[in-house]
């Protein structure tokens, strides 16, 4: 009998059993996953408890001595630096309270380890705290940018001294006056000295090679000490009077000039008397133009710093005005970082400090303004010249003045409620702080609006607009010579100049911008792409290239080779007639071109970033081209030619071209240049 081809009927019992087995297997797998997850969570919690137990043990062992403490997170990044009268009481207070979801609570939750340093006095603790803040840049401390590069007015130690603008390390051979809050203030003072005392401003190389006085002599801005006729005792007298004027001894200078004029008149030297009379009139006119009342600018008022602080909208401004020699030199605004985070943590610190004394003692009041002002004073005056009087807009801790006194070696006084002329200075400084902060908030609001407009225009999804990062590239060269690529960074609604980079482009055909763009993008993102994959680096949210389809196509090839997202690339293509405001955006992922519109806030931001990349590239290219043409870098690279010998060579031969044109024998005639070294220099420059 033939076998039937009909399959046997399925047993419902078997199907149900199979389904039950499948479900049981799934349930078992789910249980295993949940158990593994629970075990992982338990391990994390156990590790966190172990870290916290270790921290508490370290805190319990801390001494009740003054010192400085530092908190670090799991990535070993410093979170906070603080000082304490008693390390044990202060540090333990962080872990004994429930801070909830406050900023200080968020910080405490991230603490993975701590370090402490015991010091002898509170003054030492203050100085160490602020040194560490400046060095470590903690997230929960108020931080001012370390900018001590103030300009000075320098009076050279030359036989016939020169007055000049100076910024840099101090040389004891010369005299320095200042610091000044701005370059403008220095240059204005130089102009005053030229008008009144007629001191020279020319470089020594020019001065030593003059055969007749220059135009400044003709317009009565210099007395011409570059020629023998001008090298007189009158020039030395003018130098002395200029020094006294800069030191604030204006009345003494006026009295001396009056006596000299009368002396010339009594000897019937009327021309000389007229010269001194004109000098007196010029000086009197200068003094009348000063904003400071000279009658009140005596004694300690000759050198004063005035500090005013304003806090608003999560930002802060400290305005520093300087009075030197009784003359108001202007002001300078500073804007600290981490204000909101730091003031919250610091307030808790101050409250604990109040509780470290007698029981029931009231905690000292510490407004955000006072915290910012104290942070500025501690950081700004570290290792810097401090005037004996500082007028402040907010009362500050007396211990701060004591610490500055100990550091300076003379008495430092702070005054929060001045009278008379000091009151006028304080009001001027407060107004300056208000205006500077209002301008900053306005600019930041505008920049944030531009950032959001760009995100909307490009339909970019960014979790934190404040962290939106753009990198922009540009290529610059002169007819193929000295090709330079630039990369500028925009982040946090502003350009980040410290992250700018330049790239020397080599090994390509001169003028091949596409090859240059390929090289710079490959060098920039090859390592960064690997780091991003490992979770140790971060790619930008947007990559701008200055160029159209060709440059974008080259960028696309590089990103495809590196396995990066093509949607990051946007080219900025010149519009019709290459007119500003008609630019179009070109995309590497195939999207249609976008014209944002002449008045678009997004286009304004793109143009700002693109123009900065162009500026940074062209300045680097020009420097590279100049070095290549003059051989400056080759001279510096010669072994045995340091700064001193290089300066002697340049001064002797009038520049690098003169050095290159000199023979070996001529090079040997320079002091310190042996024949072997002269031959080495000659070979390097030919």
β-strand percent reads 15-25%
Question: Which class do the helix and strand fractions yield?
Answer: alpha+beta
Q: Kindly state the mean pLDDT as a whole number?
A: 82
- Cα Rg: 35 Å
Give the class-level CATH name of the largest domain. Answer: Alpha Beta
| Stretches with pLDDT under 50, minimum 5 residues | 1-6, 291-298, 356-364
Outline: globular
Give the helix level as a range of percent. Answer: 40-55%
Query: What is the correct CATH architecture of the largest domain?
Result: 2-Layer Sandwich
> Span between N and C termini?
109 Å
Total number of distinct structural domains:
5
Give me the secondary-structure topology:
Layout: H1 12-60, E1 67-72, E2 78-84, H2 87-96, H3 103-110, E3 113-118, H4 122-136, E4 152-155, E5 163-166, E6 175-177, H5 183-197, H6 204-207, H7 215-218, H8 233-246, H9 250-266, H10 270-289, E7 304-312, E8 315-324, E9 327-334, H11 339-355, H12 368-380, E10 389-392, H13 398-408, E11 413-415, H14 420-458, E12 469-478, E13 481-491, E14 494-495, E15 501-504, H15 513-533, E16 542-546, H16 549-562, E17 569-573, E18 584-587, H17 601-630, H18 632-636, H19 643-653, H20 656-661, H21 664-668, H22 675-684
Parallel strand pairs: 7-10, 10-11, 12-16, 16-17
Antiparallel strand pairs: 1-2, 1-3, 4-5, 4-6, 7-8, 8-9, 12-13, 13-14, 13-15, 17-18
Helix pairs in contact: 4-13, 5-10, 9-10, 14-17, 15-16
